[in-house]
Design the sequence.
């Protein structure tokens, strides 16, 4: 799959797309040794791109943040629409997959990457990566029920790990350090309540970018990528 040269340079954190356009005009960029005058030109993985005569180091791992909308499944294949259907073909072609699952009706922060080992670490129960969700409920949450949930409730033959809940009547945030199947919905169901809306607002060191509309995604910044790698 061919990708625009300005995009390759910016994805590899070498320069911004507008800097790449200016560099191409000045004849600083070459593909397989031939100078290109426009960064609109495209290259694929086998092409060698040089800047000022030196081959650039291309990135192998890609990390995206998506604000997942409702109605999409967190899988690479399904009978219905998957979160990968929301990606541009050139991003999809990178063999990326969602790091973890949000239910079809859950919205919010999802990390999508082709870095299998990092995804594995982020999801490992041993790493206790924290996840914060904003929730809305069908009925008011009593103080006693909030306390019970924060201490731990029976699930899958064990007890859920301590959680932090900040709530006011029918909404609030809950932070957990595990990722059991439908965990948040099942926790509230245990105290006889029902989650009517669930949005993940943080995942480990990452916070959902409030400027990212539902269904949109972007690359993690260098700083965010470093923070995420710090989970290892
Ligand atoms: N817990 C749930 O119940 N659903 C999600 O999507 C994520 C956490």
Sequence:
């Amino acid at each position: 799959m061919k990708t625009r040269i300005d995009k390759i340079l910016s994805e590899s954190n070498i320069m911004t797309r507008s800097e790449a356009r200016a560099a191409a005009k000045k004849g600083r960029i070459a593909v397989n040794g031939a100078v290109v005058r426009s960064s609109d030109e495209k290259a694929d993985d086998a092409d060698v791109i040089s800047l000022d005569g030196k081959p650039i180091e291309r990135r192998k791992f890609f990390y995206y943040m998506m604000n997942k909308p409702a109605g999409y499944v967190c899988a690479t294949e399904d009978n219905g629409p998957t979160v990968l259907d929301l990606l541009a073909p050139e991003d999809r072609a990178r063999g990326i997959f969602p790091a973890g699952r949000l239910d079809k009706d859950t919205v919010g922060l999802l990390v999508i990457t082709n870095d299998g080992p990092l995804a594995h670490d982020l999801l490992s129960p041993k790493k206790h990566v924290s996840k914060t969700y904003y929730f809305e409920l069908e009925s008011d949450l009593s103080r006693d029920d909030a306390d019970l949930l924060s201490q731990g409730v029976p699930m899958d033959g064990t007890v859920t790990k301590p959680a932090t809940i900040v709530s006011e009547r029918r909404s609030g945030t809950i932070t957990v350090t595990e990722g059991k199947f439908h965990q948040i919905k099942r926790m509230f169901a245990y105290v006889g309540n029902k989650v009517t809306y669930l949005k993940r607002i943080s995942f480990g060191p990452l916070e959902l970018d409030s400027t990212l509309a539902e269904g949109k995604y972007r690359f993690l910044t260098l700083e965010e990528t470093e923070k995420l790698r710090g989970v290892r």
About this structure: Residues 102-103, 106, 182-185, 198 surround uracil (CB under 6 Å). The radius of gyration is 21 Å. The chain has three domains: 3-55, 63-125+205-229, 131-203. The chain has a mean pLDDT of 95.
